[in-house]
Amino acid sequence: MKRLWQEEIKFHPKRIFLIVFFTILMAGLTALYPLVIRRALDMFKDNDPRILYQVPLLVVIVTAAKAASQYGQTLAVQELVLVVIRGLQNKMFLHLVYTDIAKVEREAPAQLASRFTTDALSIREAMIRVVNAFGDTITVVGLIVSMFYMDWELSLIAALLYPIAAVPIQKLGKKVRRASGNMQEQIGKTAALLNETFAQARTVRVYGMEQREVERAHRSFDELYNATLKIISGRARVDPIMEVLGGSAVAAVLGFAGWRAAMGGATLGDFSGFVAALLLAARPLRALGSLNAAMQEGISGLDRIFKIIDEPTQICDKATTTALPDGQGRVRFENVHFIYPGRHLGLQGLDFDVKPGLTVALVGPSGAGKSTALTLIPRLHDVQKGRILLDGIDLRDMRMSDLRSAIAYVPQDPLLFDISILENIRIGKPDASDEDIRKVVEGAAISQFVDSLPNGLNTRVGHGGQLLSGGQRQRVALARALLRNPRLLLLDEATSALDTESEYMVQQALSKLRKDRTTLIVAHRLSTVRSADLIVVMCDGRAVEYGNHETLMNLNGLYARLVQTQDLNR
Ligand code: ADP
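That's the ABC transporter ATP-binding protein sequence above. Prediction below.
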């Protein structure tokens, strides 16, 4: 809570002032009520004719003023809370968008997204409760003051009873905090499951998985139900406890007042005003009683958000970095080790050297570590032992933005952003001229299919680019890479077969793209491999054979076997 204050809330002094102002006004006006009632009853008893206009006027003024200040207070509170939530969301997003890919990929996207929605919601509710509690406290204090003013003996009796409530409320709060963490976790999991089912809607239908998905969702909803119920039952216990205590207080006060009246004590006005104050205090006191539980829920959400924000980013610029050196893109892997956390296979001593401008094909059985090797170059992961050099400099000594702007990467099955084709291409180089764009559109053979689209290059491609075929998506990704004009091209060749025409187009675009730059391809096609200047054959995270097609065939080793048996023989 303190951190929330220091990092977010305190930067909005104007809003805080407004809240305090309206809250005090509202609480003060509420505390005036019993006094008005007392006055009315005293006039009533004395048959005072002024009761006809003075009291109703007073009631209208007090209620109207209270309503107005309540309106102002609600607005001010909501505004502050929303601003704070927005601040947290921005911070969390900023962190996640820059942090290590491994941390982002650890959780399902929908689960991460739920941090921004459900956790934020619980924080929002808790904050509203906390701010309102501030108002409730003032109201209660005001009421207590007017109670003591009217009748201090009765007040003492009532006041003695309330502290008893503290113990069970404290206990319930802890329980609710735990339950709330569970519930938020479960909401995230449910969101991830739904996302998967809908994202794979085609597979679900074709493989008849509907029933399985229904059962999985059932289980998830069940768990969500249980987790939610746990919180609700914790929360629900607070109100009855407060109710009973409130009732006891009223009973004790009535008993004592009755006894005192028998002895000939205070006036009817005093007594009624006092009971009115006691009843008015019941609602804010109840709210204060359940405050702890609500606050714990918010703290649990806050905890999870801060945990994300605080996790340090490992892959970032060192304190001193050098700019990208001049060079044509010489890449050198030296004894590179990289193993995914919790795995025991990975790269274990990968060595190879690529001269500038050449094309290298990485081949090997699947799981050999080819794609992993590729991800190390833009530093999606960092090597754990050994090093990778680009034009003679360790990647980790280079400014990361320089490194990445020297690289273009075309993944196996590229997903596009749901924006226009043109904008998707422009990602490669945001300040590219129209002429540059026209060239790459030509180079990647995009105009052939773009011409038949309703809005040409300005057609939006749909979620992930699903309105385009696989081959078309690939060509857009290639155009993006072409536009970047990188020193280093990384390519994960598609394993899926394209239709002959697309395939031809893609190959054409590729050969243009490969010219005059160093290219690393995870290759699946014999045609690609044959045209490579160097083939690195990988097995179990190491390079076991090097050479061109002919030398490797003559070697009659793993490569020759792969060519004979695997998809390389296309
Ligand atoms: P290839 O591209 O040669 O088929 P990969 O580089 O994709 O091989 O995978 C190498 C090994 O690393 C495999 O055993 C694979 O299961 C594992 N692996 C790949 N990606 C991850 C990941 N994100 N987390 C954990 N293990 C992974």
